[in-house]
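Notebook entry, structure prediction.
Reason for the run: the old model in the group folder had no record of what sequence produced it. Starting over properly, with the input documented here first.
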Amino acid sequence: MFAGYANLAKRVAHYTGRSATFLLACLVIVIWLISGPLFAFSDTWQLVINTGTTIVTFLMVFLIQNTQNRDTEAIQIKLDELIRVTQGAHNALMALEELDERTIAEFRARYVELAALARRQLAEGAPDTDTPET
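New structure, fully documented this time:
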């Protein structure tokens, strides 16, 4: 079931992101506007567009979240691979997003310290290329 959803989400995201789909949505709105006098701008006429846009928005939220999750996961894997193959890189930083907030904050604080130290050394004329311990 989940694999089917993932494939469907990819296909739908591909088509909804195209300019033709945007133009189709604009056309639907124009047709709805033109039909206003035909339905005397009634509450039902307004309800049709409100309901339609609400349903589409509701479904698109899940589609966008799925796409973002997939893209983020791919980027994290690529970053982990760059860390893994970089001489002198700290492998402890791989899959950092999986750690708890406190541990991430500790890593972040250490890197803020390292950045401040590097800026001070740079101001004194020293190079800022180094691989200190985290």
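Summary: The chain has four helices and no strands.
The old model has been moved to the deprecated folder.
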